[in-house]
Design a protein that fits this description.
The chain is α+β, with helices and mostly antiparallel strands and about 775 residues long. About 40% of the residues lie in helices and about 20% in strands. A hairpin with a 2-residue loop joins β13 and β14. The N terminus and C terminus are likely disordered. InterPro entries: Beta-lactam/transpept-like, Glyco_trans_51, Glycosyltr_51/Transpeptidase, Lysozyme-like_dom_sf, PBP_1b, PBP_transglycosylase, PCN-bd_Tpept, UB2H.
Length: about 775
């Protein structure tokens, strides 16, 4: 009996231990699940309760101002409207539309918050003449002073993930988009609880029939969770987290809140390294229009992209994109939202993309310059998340002309030299605004920005500083002062000898200053610089706006100093502005995401060099392009169009430069090879070609000819330097600082008939 009892007791103990283990495992599983659910819940709440999305700072181009007398052609106005995504319609009945009848435009302007305040949507009438705006009227037909189009977005300051989006509230999203999205991606969105067993079963069946994955069963909520919280890892563990988090999302948030988050988060394409998120930005990216201005076919294309933005990329795979769009339209017809005839008509429509590629309308070099200025005033986090609006003077029309001039010139030059690179900076003479920047021969691609970062010897572009330092001493120097161009040996601080030579390997004896600069004589310039003093020349570089420390050595007189094109632009901007220095400006105002003004960047010009001395230098630079090393400019520009400029070539023709200005724009162009080997191009045979082509297409104001205080003009003999008359041989009409003109008269006596002709011209 004892043994039996012992056996029974053992069996009972064994039975009890298995039950205990089961209970413990169940409890452990429950704890794990509790922790898992708590983790998922925390992730969901943490994602949707905090500020949901980073809003990068947006960078805007200048708005096109329509004012009576403004220089603008009808073609340019229509091109600008096209760039902004305005649609040409017979009936101008909504913002973002226009019509044109000859030189008459009717434009329905979009609402926009400018730096100076918000403007509502409004309709205007614009009459154009051949080259200017004739008159602007409001919708009542009254003449108004001016109007301006909404500016173009040219880039932004993005967070580390390079995500970008235009935030929309659900109320701002077109109903057509919301209904199409739900119909195509999740028909049971408003009835399921985060996951849809019916959709999963349907997808499994379709995939089994096809023998591959042709359909997904994810709800919009699951897609949102995957995009915002989880990675793209393919595993059962991730799918489990996705399902649980989707259910928890539905428990905590309304359907409207989820749908609003989805339309702002969904990934819909790529622009360079910028990820396009949300339908608001996608409308701009593909159609260059606000979402509310899209038609049904365009909305269907965007909804179709949800399935695979890369696979259905309309630029790379237009037929795939069109087929996918038509499938979306077909689903709308199946639901009775379209008739068979309407479906057929919509499916015949082209994709109507606004651009030729994802990179059209992208200007990375200029935006890079803007970012650098912003970084001095704002923290990176604020720039990446606060939705700041940055207003710049960037001019897309001028940028396109600069790019066109660059491409055209490189096509001709690369037959002689492969792998040529280029950089260009364009400013407005009257303001110092930077209006266009090219950072390389592929200007649409971000990368090494040569306009800002390529430090290269500037060669003869340094010479104007040498001559200006001399001309700023009118008691010693004038444009007629003779300087020797005979060989010279100059001692460096380390005891070595510097022996400059001219490009033509010749010396030219005694030459006047204006001739030495116009023909870029190295020896004469070196002698002049040493006479004036290296310290005075160095001081002149700094006064003109060169902030980089330069070595005070003789070779810097001929441009051994290495500067970036943007730094050269600062120097030549001061020369173009008659000796008034102002920092180059790329931002004129900043507002917050609600349009409230945060900062202005007014220009405060400062006279740093005598305008009289600069006027004399400008005369010599005019001569440079008329008779000297830059005369190739007039192979393209009209012969009577006044511009001033200077060629630059570094040792062994490694760098080709040209810098110059008209009355409206100043431009600096550099050409060279990234490996710093010889290009075989001088400033005249390389960079000048780009400069002249750009100026021929962009400039409408030649250099003004006006008298300057402290300057007097005299007719002089260009050889002897003595006073002369207009009818005399070798006579030149030249400027002199007051009191520095020659007093001795040459031997050219006025002939009676010429004197009589002169008097008659005066009194006629």
């Amino acid at each position: 009996m004892v043994k039996k009892a012992s056996k029974a007791s053992g069996a009972s103990a064994a039975k009890f231990s298995w039950w205990g283990l089961f209970v413990k495992l169940s409890l452990a599983f429950a704890v794990v699940m509790l922790i898992f659910f708590a983790y998922c819940d925390a992730k969901v709440r943490g994602t949707f309760d905090r500020q949901r999305y980073e809003q990068p700072a947006k960078v805007y181009a200048r708005p096109l101002v329509l004012a009576t007398g403004a220089i603008l052609t009808a073609y340019e106005l229509e091109s600008e409207l096209g760039e902004l995504g305005y649609s040409n319609r017979r009936l101008v009945d909504q913002p973002g539309s226009y019509s044109r009848q000859g030189d008459h435009f009717t434009i329905y302007l979009r609402p926009f918050s400018f730096a100076d305040g918000a403007q509502p949507a409004r309709k205007i009438e614009v009459e154009m003449s051949a080259t200017t705006v004739r008159v602007v009227r409001n919708k009542l037909g009254d003449r108004i002073a001016e109007e301006q189009l909404d500016p173009m977005v040219i880039g932004g300051v993005y967070p580390g993930r390079h995500e970008d989006r235009i935030m929309l509230s659900l109320a701002e999203a077109p109903q057509m988009l919301l209904e199409t999205l739900v119909q195509v991606e999740d028909q049971h969105f408003y009835s399921h609880f985060g996951i849809s067993p019916r959709s999963i079963a349907r997808a499994m069946l379709a995939n089994i029939k096809a023998g591959r994955t042709v359909q997904g069963g994810s709800t919009l909520t699951q897609q949102l969770v995957k995009n915002t919280i989880l990675s793209n890892e393919r595993s059962l563990w991730r799918k489990a987290k996705e399902a649980v988090m989707s259910i928890l999302t539905e428990m905590h948030y309304s359907k409207d809140r989820i749908l609003e988050a989805y339309i702002n988060e969904v990934y819909l394409g790529q622009e360079g390294n910028r990820a396009i998120h949300g339908f608001g930005l996608a409308a701009r990216h593909y159609y260059n229009r606000p979402l509310e201005e899209l038609n049904l076919g365009q909305v269907a294309m965007l909804v179709g992209l949800v399935k695979g933005p890369s696979y259905y990329d309309p630029w790379r795979h237009p037929e795939r994109a069109k087929t996918r769009r038509n499938i979306v339209l077909g689903e709308l017809e199946e639901e009775g939202w379209l008739t068979t005839q309407q479906l057929a008509a919509w499916q015949k429509e082209p994709l109507e993309l606004a651009k030729t590629s994802a990179l059209a309308g992208v200007y990375p070099a200029y935006v890079d310059l803007v970012r650098r200025q912003l970084s001095r005033d704002y923290q990176s986090k604020e720039l990446q998340t606060s939705g700041l609006r940055i207003f710049t003077p960037f001019d897309p029309v001028l940028q396109r002309r600069a790019e066109k001039a660059t491409v055209k010139s490189l096509q001709r030059l690369e037959a002689r030299q492969k792998d040529l690179e280029v950089a260009m900076v364009v400013t407005k003479v009257n303001s110092g605004d930077v209006v266009a920047v090219i950072g390389g021969k592929r200007p649409k691609y971000a990368g090494f920005n040569r306009a800002l970062d390529a430090l290269r010897p500037i060669g003869s572009l340094a010479k104007p500083a040498v001559y200006l330092a001399a001309l700023n001493q009118p008691n010693q120097y004038s444009l007629l002062t003779k300087v020797s161009d005979e060989p010279v040996s100059i001692s460096n601080a380390n005891g070595s000898q510097w022996r400059p030579s001219n490009y033509d390997r010749k010396s030219h004896g005694e030459v006047p200053l204006h001739t030495a600069l116009a023909h870029s004589y190295n020896i004469a310039t070196a002698r002049l610089g040493m006479q004036v003093g290296l310290d005075k020349v160095m001081a002149m570089f700094q006064r003109l706006g060169v902030q980089r420390p330069l070595l005070e050595v003789p070779s810097m007189l001929l441009g051994s100093a290495e500067l970036a094109p943007i730094e050269v632009a600062a120097m030549y901007q001061t020369l173009a502005a008659d000796g008034r220095y102002t920092p180059l400006r790329t931002i004129y105002a900043i507002t917050d995401n609600k349009g409230e003004l945060l900062a202005r960047y007014p220009q405060k010009p400062k006279q740093v060099v005598s305008s009289a001395a600069v006027h004399l230098l400008q005369y010599a630079m005019l001569e440079t392009v008329r008779e000297g090393t830059g005369k190739g400019v007039y192979q393209v520009l009209p012969k009577d169009y006044r511009v001033a400029g200077k060629t630059g070539t570094s040792n062994d023709t490694r760098d080709s430069w040209f810098a110059g200005f008209a009355g409206d724009y100043m431009a600096v162009v550099w050409m060279g090879l990234d490996n710093n080997t010889s290009t075989g191009l001088t400033g005249a045979s390389g960079a000048l070609m780009v400069w002249r082509q750009f100026m021929a297409e962009a400039s409408t104001e030649q250099m003004p000819f006006s008298m300057v205080d402290g300057v007097e003009y005299q007719w002089v003999d260009g050889i002897s330097g003595k006073l002369s008359q207009s009818w005399c041989e070798n006579a030149r009409y030249m400027p002199f600082m007051s009191g520095s003109a020659p007093s001795e008269r040459g031997g050219c006596a006025p002939e009676p008939e010429k004197v009589w002709g002169w008097f008659r011209s005066v009194f006629d």
